[in-house]
Amino acid sequence: MIRSVASSRRLRAHCIATAVVAAAGAGMAHAADLDDSYLRGSFPSEERVLSWDGINFGAQIGYSSLNVDPEDAASSLVANSLRNTTLESEFSPQDWTSLPKQSTNSTQYGFFLGYSAQWDRLVLGVDVAYNRPSSLEASSIDSIARRVTTSDNTVHDVSINSSASLKLHDYATIRGRAGYAFGQFLPYAVLGAAVGRFDYAVSATTVDVFTPSGGTPTVYAPPTQTDSKDNAYSAGFVAGLGMDVALLPNVFLRAEWEYIIFSPVGGIRSQLNTGRVGIGLRF
To answer: Is 54-282 a domain of CATH 2.40.160?
Structure first.
């Protein structure tokens, strides 16, 4: 009887020791796994990163501001009116004109088509887009009059009237995109190129009433000089920021700001700022 009780006690002690060793081993394994995750620099996360791979297309609507700078647009026309004259060589009236900057605002609409590839959270892509403003047109006028005396003692009363106008019909862009995905959101930045279709017109009327020393006034009024063109194309540089938000696995909303600086047309420089929203499909 005494031997049986002793054997039972030894059996219970053995079971307890086995359980303690097993628990310790499991704890050490869990600690090892946790330490490994810390070493990798990440905590366990349940966040799901959506896939943005594939072709995407959609429609967009926005509001644009076109800033027009025609400051020196009429200079070459004035110089042409007064070419080979003492007045032009000594006083350069072409530098007197300074057409003021103007801005105009309009809604716009368009569509986009792109392709994206994803590596973990990094999303790189390219897209093309076409946009058409409802009406983006600005004009500017300037008048100046001066009296100068040239080296031959002739007094010149010079007046110059100049004007310029610019209209943006539509434009297309090709852009590279780089974004970082988290949850259902994809913030991104874009860089690329644009081409715009413009109408422009520039004119300058120069009148010189000159009075030689001891002589009578004479009017020199060459014809008004003009430079105009419809459907003139201008290349530009594009930059912007945006955010895509997934509504469904293949449907997303887009909001972005885009800036374009166009090369001069007819001596007129222009910049376009646009804020827009859109909806797209991905497949």
So the answer is: yes
